[in-house]
Amino acid sequence: MNKASTVEELFAALESPLRWVEIKGLGTLCLRALTYKERNEISKDSNIKVPGKELPEIDMDRYASLMFQTCIVEPKLKYDQAHKLINGPAIVIDQLMKQLNELTGLDDKGRVLKDAVDAAEESFR
After folding, report:
1. Chain-centre distance of CA 97, in angstroms?
2. Are the C-beta atoms of 95 and 23 separated by less than 8 Å?
3. What is the CATH number of the domain that holds 39?
4. Could you read off the pLDDT of 2-27 as tens digits, one per residue?
5. Terminal Cα distance for the chain, rounded
6. Does a structural domain hold residue 73?
7. Is 2 domain-assigned?
8. Helices (H), ranges, 14-59
9. Torsion of CA 87, 98, 58, 116, to 10 degrees
10. H-helix or E-strand spanning residue 23
């Protein structure tokens, strides 16, 4: 029979892992994954209503800026600083976004990856 986790074990498992990465053109950064709440807030804050369309679209510049501000632990950035990063070379910023999305379990559109959902479901079995 399986033993249930303690409250302490449950919350310890929720701590965001840190990852130090070297990104050519940016240097060494410390990154962390988004929390569930942060992911939902960034998604909501990045949606824009487009006249004539039923569903909102994602403002990818705002989305990336919020991801950088939230997930880059070192050096810590303010929003305006994070927003300046989107003006960097696409190949460099794409590498950073790839690292952040991978760490958080998202695809390049900010949607939760099926593999991340499957892994989370498997952890509860």
Report:
1. 8
2. yes
3. 3.30.2220
4. 888 888 888 887 777 899 999 999 99
5. 12
6. yes
7. no
8. 36-46
9. -160
10. strand 18-23
